[in-house]
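Sample 3 of the quickstart, ligand flavin-adenine dinucleotide:
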Amino acid sequence: MYNYNSVVAEGIGKNRLECITIKNIETGEQKTSEAGALFIFIGARPVTDWIKLNIYKDSKGFIETGRDLFKSENFKKTWKLDRDPYPLETCIPGIFSVGDVRAGAMNRVASAVGEGAMAIKLVHEYLAEV
Ligand SMILES: Cc1cc2nc3c(=O)[nH]c(=O)nc-3n(C[C@H](O)[C@H](O)[C@H](O)COP(=O)(O)OP(=O)(O)OC[C@H]3O[C@@H](n4cnc5c(N)ncnc54)[C@H](O)[C@@H]3O)c2cc1C
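Result:
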């Protein structure tokens, strides 16, 4: 019953969660079980449609950066610089993408913060060459 087509129908408890009711949406069957905690893994959707720049994104809208850009044949034709893109650099030189919105991200706070710090150094490297 707890496999597919199931949703959490109800959380039950006095001062804290004590039970959850799971409902099978195909059969309507419901089962209440003891539960001390409920962890929500809802996935993520990048909100990148608003970006007017023609940056490369994967099929889900996450922004491609660094060596991953070479997966696209078009990228090889359009990248004009002698160097490869820096890590975290998008297909537009000097524009970087970090954190969850980046394709292949680790989806952790520490990595998002670390990538932000890396990006500052990479921006300086980029500025030194223009
Ligand atoms: C339920 C849940 C639990 C998690 N638990 C953990 C955990 O235990 N440990 C851990 O390390 N990581 C955890 N994560 C992952 C962690 O939250 C992310 O990896 C991290 O927050 C990514 O940071 P970010 O800055 O890239 O993105 P975000 O934290 O998502 O920040 C992006 C910000 O940009 C804003 N924004 C979006 N579009 C625009 C726009 N057009 N203009 C202006 N602002 C905009 C958003 O409102 C948001 O504030 C969890 C994530 C979820 C969803």
